[in-house]
Amino acid sequence: MTENFSNDERQRQIQERVARIREEIAGEAVRCGRKPEDITLMAVTKTVDPIYVNTAIGCGVRVLGENRVQEYLSKRDDYRLDGCSVHMIGHLQSNKVKFIVDKVDCIQSVDSVKLLSEIDKESAKAGKKMKILCEVNIGREESKSGLDPDAVVDFVEQAAGFSHIQVSGLMAIPPICDKISDLEDYFDRMYNLFLDISTKKIDNVSMDLLSMGMSGDYLPAIRHGSNMVRLGTAIFGRRNY
Ligand SMILES: *Cc1c(COP(=O)(O)O)cnc(C)c1O
User: Fold this and answer.
1) Which of 32, 53, 190, 230 sits at 20 to 30 Å (Cα–Cα) from 222?
2) What mean pLDDT comes out for the span 119-133?
3) Which of 230, 233, 238, 239, when mutated, tests ligand 1's pocket best, judged by the most ligand atoms within 8 Å of its CB?
4) Contacts (Cβ under 8 Å, ≥6 apart) of 220
C-alpha cells in the first residue's frame, strides 16, 4: 500500500509516473499528428498532501486542478506555486466564489447563469477577468453536473456578455463506458462542439482549452482532440479518503 512507503519512496514514484505519463502523452500526440507541447498535463490534487503536490510541481507540472474550496484554501500556503496556474475543476457553489476568485486562474466547472453572474461580480471586485470553461454533461447523466450538450452554444453566448469573464473552452467528464468505441464517441462529440463554437468566432470567447481525459482515459481523449488532461491517480496513486 502506498501509504506505507516512506516520503522519499513516494516522491520517487511520483517522479517516475510523471516522466512515464509525459512520454505516453508525447507518443500519442505524435501518432495523431499533434505537437506534444500542445497538450497540458494537469495534476489533480484532491486528498493529496502538499508535499507530494510540490513533487509534481518539481517535475515541471505547471497546472493544478482543485476540487474543493475548503481543501484548497487549507493547502494553498504549502504549495510552491511559482510559475503555476490553478484551475477549479470541482462543482462550485456560487456562495463560495468569493473565497477563491483571487486564488485561481480558471474555473472549469461552470454550468449555470447563477454561477456566471457571481463569478462576474466577484471578479469585478477583484479587478480581474476570470477565465472559465463551460462544463458539458456530454452523456446527459442525471447524476452529473454540466450543461446539456444542446444548451452549450446558447450558454457560451450568454457567458460572452459578462465583461469580467473570458470564456476559454469546454470541459467534460464522459460516462463510464464498457466499450472504448462508446467513450471515443463522447470525446468526439465534445471535439465537434468545441470546433463548432470556435468557428462561430463569438466576441469575448476564445476556444483555447478542451479539458477532457482523466487517469483511465487520457490517451483516447488526446486522440479525440483534448488539449488538457486532468490526472490524479495516475500521478499520485490511489486516493485515501
Ligand atoms: C478527481 C478528478 C479528476 C482526476 O481523476 P483521476 O481518475 O484520479 O485521474 C479529473 N477531473 C475531475 C473533475 C476530478 O474530480
Assistant:
1) 53
2) 98
3) 230
4) 180, 183, 184, 187, 213
